[in-house]
Amino acid sequence: MILGFGPTEMVMVLVFCLFQALPWILFTVVCVLAIRWFVRQDRPRKDPESVAVRRSLAEVLRAHRERCKMTQEFVAEKIGVSRQAVSKWESGASEPSTTNLVKVARL
Predict the structure, then answer these.
(1) Whole-structure pTM over 0.90, yes or no?
(2) Is the CB of residue 75 less than 8 Å from the CB of residue 86?
(3) 20-61 pLDDT tens trace
């Protein structure tokens, strides 16, 4: 017996306290959920078109080379690398160095 309460009285006190605190608990949960909802609304949304537009560097390099009607050999000769290096860049196996990337952009 704690503070003169028996087990039955302790259960009743706990239930009473729970019902007293329940509105505050519910209010807090609703506030947290509302804040989370407002924060999500603030974020910029990713529309499917912008996600689909993103391409890898390899895809972009190949597309531009083909659009300009250049061969891998021509690009390699002008930049000063092997044709296999250009092939690796376009397949995504490796990426060009910054210097070579600038040369490709100028070409």
Answers:
(1) no
(2) yes
(3) 888 888 899 999 999 998 888 877 766 666 655 667 888 888
3-class DSSP state for residue 65? helix
Rounded to the nearest 5 percent, the helix, strand and coil shares of the chain are: 75, 0, 25
What count of other Cβ atoms lies within 10 Å of the Cβ of residue 90?
20
How far apart, in whole angstroms, are the C-alpha atoms of residue 70 and residue 15? Answer: 80
What single DSSP character describes residue 44?
P
Q: Are 10 and 2 in contact (CB under 8 A)?
A: yes
Structure tokens at 62: 């190949």
